[in-house]
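During the second year of the project, the team shifted from modelling isolated chains to modelling whole assemblies. The rationale, set out in the original proposal, was that interfaces cannot be judged from single-chain predictions alone. As a representative example for this report, we include one of the complexes processed in the last quarter. Its constituent sequences, exactly as entered into the pipeline, are reproduced here:
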Amino acid sequence: MAKLLEMKAQLGGDEGKHKFVLKTPKGTRDYSPKQMAIRERVFSTITSCFRRHGAEVIDTPVFELKETLTGKYGEDSKLIYDLKDQGGELLSLRYDLTVPFARYLAMNKITNIKRYHIAKVYRRDNPAMTRGRYREFYQCDFDIAGQFDPMIPDAECLKIVHEILSDLQLGDFLIKVNDRRILDGMFAVCGVPDSKFRTICSSVDKLDKMPWEEVRSEMVGEKGLSPEAADRIGEYVQLQGGLELVERLLQDPRLSQNKLAKEGLGDMKLLFEYLALFGITGKISFDLSLARGLDYYTGVIFEAVLLQQENHPVEEPVRVGSVAGGRRDLFKASPSSKISSRKMPFLSSICHGSRWLLAAMEHLSSLLLTLPTASEEKIRTTETQVLVASAQKKLLEERLKLIAELWDAGIKAEVLYKKKPKLLNQLQYCEDTGIPLVAIVGEQELKDGVVKLRVVATREEVNVPRESLVEEIRKRTSQP
Amino acid sequence: MAKLLEMKAQLGGDEGKHKFVLKTPKGTRDYSPKQMAIRERVFSTITSCFRRHGAEVIDTPVFELKETLTGKYGEDSKLIYDLKDQGGELLSLRYDLTVPFARYLAMNKITNIKRYHIAKVYRRDNPAMTRGRYREFYQCDFDIAGQFDPMIPDAECLKIVHEILSDLQLGDFLIKVNDRRILDGMFAVCGVPDSKFRTICSSVDKLDKMPWEEVRSEMVGEKGLSPEAADRIGEYVQLQGGLELVERLLQDPRLSQNKLAKEGLGDMKLLFEYLALFGITGKISFDLSLARGLDYYTGVIFEAVLLQQENHPVEEPVRVGSVAGGRRDLFKASPSSKISSRKMPFLSSICHGSRWLLAAMEHLSSLLLTLPTASEEKIRTTETQVLVASAQKKLLEERLKLIAELWDAGIKAEVLYKKKPKLLNQLQYCEDTGIPLVAIVGEQELKDGVVKLRVVATREEVNVPRESLVEEIRKRTSQP
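Output from the structure prediction step:
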């Protein structure tokens, strides 16, 4: 069939001089009704949570002036999609939702906002699509921008991640937290020179995939760190725990002498106190190996990971790893600040203070689509409550009259677009699409002023007076 | 302030060598939280209606292979946004949702589907933004594709438009209908040569903005139609009515002799019978001046217009005109078909039959944003039900504990991110953002095991036992 199609395309029509390729662009995909049903369920869970926490929502165009994106992504700038110069402004597709958000705040002189933004972003990457990574994918960003008392917004961000992952029922998860200042202090007291900070960070960050010995030899062998410094780092980065670990490190003879580390640990203690009030410390792990060293991270960093389930098949190809991340960010750029990879000159006079970001649920819904639970489950792609059918061939008019009554009462209803459908075909349609009820009109029912309501699953049939049909359908299809 | 910003941008940072422009690309705009609140209300009304009618939903990438769009839009192809050639495939931003839909059907060999798709499309046009027209704008497409008994899907499309416009409460409206075959037949019996069909169509289509005399002189003077033919057209295109007009025209000595016109009028009669069963003929007008002559329109065409309200201020700049349109389409292209402006070779072996399209709510939400009602109304941008506050400065811990209880029970709640907020500031925040309730914890309340619940609007305060607080908040904020 596909072959026939291709041949036809090659032969037929004026366009047929070259082979017509029927596909979506590389790294993109369509969402089928079934995939949309899953995506909408995920987004609605996430959105409900953001709204529960009082967030507003904004939207920005899919493209920005090219210069708005210029210089914000360092190395990764080569992954930006540019639009062709067709006269007028030079434009690029958005690479993330952060830069458009910053541009929006600056344009509108907003210093204080809690907003979310769920939208597609674009990266000319070579993504592993089997792992749910694409060139066009969704980001779900939640930001709190402004100046506030320490660690309250940070704690709320973690609470939100905890709520979303619980609500999505993805199985067990863990949220790792660390603080940029603790990282800085730790590397300083271990004797890592400033020039090696970024590269040693990225080695440490591999600890969730590699054993310590390999990470150590990378640091010493490839990156030229002294073995003594490496060993000192090793003592710290293998530590994970809760409030008791924070308190132990506050007493640590080396760390407690470092101003940055002490500040970070003090805030981490406060954070854990708030998390205890929220009742979520059980799934939070203070983890010194969580090392995201980007220059503009200024405070807490966190990352949520799904834990492998015992009952997952071994051949499961999906790596259920990081599903959400966040950090406190320095959301401004002044000549004195160190921001090098994410310059936002237009924010310099606007956004004093910090920003709390909860981002990168980006691959969550892709992930869900490929998880075994999703494919096994029977998923409906419509919400239709009732099919309006007729027992006799004819009665189209009566079906149309009845369905209009139902629609006007807010009932989700369908009718087959046939003048004389067979009852069997109408019942089969319900089986195929998961419609739970059939409202059947027939000569006798019309005479009696009733409608025969059939429950598809049980084949039970009851005659319902026409005036109470709407109520009866509502009762039988209401979610408990 | 804007000036200061500009100057700062010019001076500060490495980017500052040229003037940094803080704007969205031409023809695009951001949606603020307030605009998003309106947009989401409109979309949720539209979506609910589509779902009530049993539609599925799909999504496609924002860009397509350039060749997928090539040759589909005739003259308008110059308005397509191309992506820059950065290696790999040549891509273009989607111009509408129809071509991606057709590509989706062909790729997946789907012949039968009822789906909607609400998404942004892109046109390098010079739009009148004051009228709510942009280069990036939403389309809300609802399509029924497949082969069905005559006029049942057509009638449902009109019912949907009727429901949506009623639900949106935009004021009075009228849905004009005509049929491509009636147009063809009418022009034929009036003596319009085939070669002039398109151009005469477009003259007739101006009748909603121009008096007949001007349209007539355009047809005769500019377009070279004979005065006799023009006069004959004039007799028809000034007719509007319902079923009685259809029946009169079925008896018309000239039209009844034309095969196409007779077929179209027969179906129009059937349509009106179905619309009567749906109870919506009151707002439907069979209007012979509705002349959309595109080659691939094969049956019913319709267009919904908002009627000017008496009580609208005269200086109202928004032209409340067409807000929705649709038609039956020939959704295939075979060498023998006449489709010239919308070739879809990839559909040739897939989609036999027709398609019913209800499209072009495209400017509806833009329109709503600029309507006076929308700006006058007080619109909330969050859904927060309750602010958790404290009477005394301190008690942050108690506030956090209480708000976690509320979040976990699904209550939408906020707390100020301050260790020691003043009660007055907390109450003011509720006034500003429209939060209806305040849950106040204080030393005494904690001792008594109660929370003081304050109604912001009335300043009424009641002590509620902590264990029934959730229920009390739900009761007081439930929509009737």
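Confidence is low (pLDDT under 50) at residues 1-18, 312-319, 332-353 of chain B. The domain at 33-376 of chain B is CATH 3.30.930.10 (BirA Bifunctional Protein; domain 2).
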